[in-house]
């Protein structure tokens, strides 16, 4: 069986991390292609005969003949199938990795939750880049301070109250966002909370008291054996200021 | 057979419009629930026994016992199934309305395109609201001017070159974004282009010359009989400044 090939920028967790957590929890065989040392040609020594390194990722993005060209990383190659967009990759992997239920309505419910998580990730990113990706943070600092203040005052509470309600109203119990079993959305919720706590430690200082069920979910995911092993491994890139979740003290609550 | 029930803010196209276009193209039986006159109770005279009007939408959003509570409109009810998030609704409706192919890889390709369209819609929105949804445009005008300038200079070209390439590299021909038949992503691409041209008429003045295949797709969708009839009907809400696509002359190119 071929390995899944994940393509994402090396050196940051970013949106690729949501996919990595699913692959790691499932114990799936995967290559984190752009983080591997470059291999010049397909003939070189690796079992799948694929190129490695960031050039391999760029050559897919710039391909003039690939029909399913991604707009941006992350994307996943599974044999001849290329899937782009984080939530779409998880939709594809979910049933294959045992991280999504068979029931169609429940799958759409989980996917909708994942898309809402993705929306919040974009908003977290935009706290440090509210004007343009092509400018440095320092070039949009005033707008960033305003946007981050609104994110802390209005958006974190709105999203987190919603997700806490989702846990409360899950008829199968509050251990999981949807249904009675772990899904990729639970893993992504761990990552979202983890990123928010890293980026905004003062604003999230009372998180456990405000959102006890989300806090329990975050801790339960972190304690899962494969996730714990992954987080302790060099495969887990530390949070840093190249990521969507960046800690700039001036953007955090006073 | 029950009608599909679409829930979205009345008075604007917004993200609900991407769903409306799919329902209209398919000639599907649907209720645009929040736009209907209020009906106080489920027992009132309508064949599905559901409540109408914006209160009906709010009561789902605020429900304390609904398991699949949406974060925000649009959402769709189909019998007992509730689906939220625009792209997720289209993923659900696609095969049911004949607007998505049977092939799984192609479905994920189309869904990935839809998510990239959704990303651009969010960026179009953020040109007039770069700081906070809770503030008026006039309260974030300076940041809006900066963000809109970047959107015009960098983001419209990046996204539109990408989508033009998708048409060029479609092995089944450049009439559709994916495969040989119309999909919901084609309809959404019409709406995205339509919204951008409304919001930024000067910045998109050369659109037809710059993106000939996208322009042909936009015109082909607009000329489809059911779409043309819909656009000429009172069901199509005109573009306006409550929408994600707003025309503020000061944000457009000089």
Automatic annotation (TrEMBL), chains A, B:
<feature type="domain" description="GST C-terminal">
    <location>
        <begin position="103"/>
        <end position="251"/>
    </location>
</feature>
<dbReference type="GO" id="GO:0006749">
    <property type="term" value="P:glutathione metabolic process"/>
</dbReference>
<dbReference type="InterPro" id="IPR036282">
    <property type="entry name" value="Glutathione-S-Trfase_C_sf"/>
</dbReference>
<dbReference type="Pfam" id="PF14497">
    <property type="entry name" value="GST_C_3"/>
</dbReference>
<feature type="domain" description="GST N-terminal">
    <location>
        <begin position="2"/>
        <end position="101"/>
    </location>
</feature>
<dbReference type="InterPro" id="IPR004046">
    <property type="entry name" value="GST_C"/>
</dbReference>
<protein>
    <submittedName>
        <fullName>Glutathione S-transferase</fullName>
    </submittedName>
</protein>
<dbReference type="InterPro" id="IPR050213">
    <property type="entry name" value="GST_superfamily"/>
</dbReference>
<dbReference type="InterPro" id="IPR004045">
    <property type="entry name" value="Glutathione_S-Trfase_N"/>
</dbReference>
<dbReference type="InterPro" id="IPR036249">
    <property type="entry name" value="Thioredoxin-like_sf"/>
</dbReference>
<dbReference type="InterPro" id="IPR010987">
    <property type="entry name" value="Glutathione-S-Trfase_C-like"/>
</dbReference>
<dbReference type="GO" id="GO:0004364">
    <property type="term" value="F:glutathione transferase activity"/>
</dbReference>
<keyword id="KW-0808">Transferase</keyword>
């Amino acid at each position: 069986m071929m390995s899944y090939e994940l393509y994402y920028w090396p050196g940051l967790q970013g949106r690729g991390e949501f996919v990595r957590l699913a692959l790691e929890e499932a114990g799936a065989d995967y290559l984190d292609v752009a983080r591997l040392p470059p291999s010049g040609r397909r003939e070189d020594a690796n079992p799948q005969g694929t190129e490695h390194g960031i050039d391999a990722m760029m050559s897919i993005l710039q391909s003039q003949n690939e029909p399913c060209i991604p707009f941006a990383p992350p994307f996943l190659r599974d044999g001849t199938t290329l899937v782009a967009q984080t939530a779409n990759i998880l939709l594809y992997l979910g049933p294959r990795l045992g991280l999504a239920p068979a029931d169609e309505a429940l799958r759409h419910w989980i996917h909708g939750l994942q898309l809402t998580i993705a929306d919040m990730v974009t908003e977290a990113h935009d706290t440090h880049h509210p004007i343009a990706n092509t400018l440095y943070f320092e070039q949009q600092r005033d707008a960033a301070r305003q946007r981050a203040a609104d994110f802390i005052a209005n958006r974190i509470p709105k999203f987190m109250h919603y997700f806490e309600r989702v846990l409360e109203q899950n008829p199968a119990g509050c251990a999981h966002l949807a249904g009675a079993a772990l899904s990729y959305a639970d893993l992504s919720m761990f990552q979202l909370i983890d990123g928010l706590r890293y980026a905004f430690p003062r604003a999230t200082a009372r998180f456990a008291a405000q959102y006890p069920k989300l806090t329990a979910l975050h801790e339960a995911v972190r304690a899962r054996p494969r996730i714990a092993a992954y987080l302790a491994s060099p495969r887990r890139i530390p949070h840093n200021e190249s990521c969507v979740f960046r800690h700039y003290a001036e953007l955090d609550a006073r």
